Q: What sequence folds into this?
DNA sequence: GGCTAACAGTTGAATTTGTAACTAACAAGG
DNA sequence: CCTTGTTAGTTACAAATTCAACTGTTAGCC
């Protein structure tokens, strides 16, 4: 016996829809970095941030990417074990560790970056440029990382 | 040393953006069903599907909501333990189990549904009706549940 | 019937994540 | 210096998720 009240399809519920879309959109790409380099999602993100912005600390990565520090910590450990990045203690403040991609790490980054761009283009191609632009801006606002609320 | 190539900010990458938005959008609501009824996300989803569409099997739920069968199985077990739903073996085919909310389950559903609707309205209010409509339709297409690709 | 394959759902072991407590390093005030 | 508080990062333990193998049941086909 469904409810008597006006239907409220779960698939109209924004958080639900966002989730479904995010999962579906990330699926194929996930298998690429997983199968090709054995990376986990967090690892891929950390790699991506370092590749794009260069040397930075774990804390910075966590803040920029909104990843919890324990996740960053574990991802960094795995990436370091694979020689994708090097860690260097801060000289003035020894609590920090400066992370930087190795040549290997940069090569992986460059490869995945290409794939990511192509993948993004493929997703975007399903809509008009204006639609995609609006989508991006709305998603940014929803994610609360855009100071425009 | 960031890459020499044109920047490709991770936060421009659609799967990434979708993920961030989904996480942010779901956060507050998650604490509601968690704190108020001790439900896990999957449990809440199963409850919602049964509340909205009425009696159905675990398999149907899994297909509609794109939840893996083991997740559904465990969610159903917890919901049954809390007497939120009843399970009934199919008479013609005893492999199936027909799931249905109890009065308690329906009450929980009704309450959460109200909250969800209000929550959705609050999220949507940040945009124009046209924008929200477009967002929903794009998300549906991305999630691949809309046969329009 | 009796064999095999397919299917709904469950369970167990291995991964992954989340929470909280922890270590090591610095900073500020006395 | 020596407390007290804060910060960057790690670790330990519990909770959740995944993957694969498993049970019980039905269907097809000889």
A:
């Amino acid at each position: 016996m469904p409810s008597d009240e006006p239907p409220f399809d779960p698939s109209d519920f924004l958080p639900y829809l966002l989730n479904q879309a995010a999962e579906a959109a990330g699926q194929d790409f996930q298998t690429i970095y997983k199968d090709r380099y054995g990376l986990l999602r967090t690892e891929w993100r950390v790699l991506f941030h370092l590749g794009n912005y260069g040397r930075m600390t774990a804390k910075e990565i966590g803040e920029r990417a909104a990843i919890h520090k324990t996740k960053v910590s574990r991802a960094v450990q795995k990436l370091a074990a694979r020689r994708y990045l090097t860690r260097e203690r801060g000289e003035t403040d020894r609590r920090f560790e400066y992370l930087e991609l190795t040549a290997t790490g940069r090569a992986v980054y460059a490869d995945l970056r290409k794939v990511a761009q192509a993948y993004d283009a493929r997703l975007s191609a399903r809509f008009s440029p204006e639609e995609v632009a609006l989508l991006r801006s709305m998603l940014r606002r929803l994610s609360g990382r855009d100071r425009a609320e």
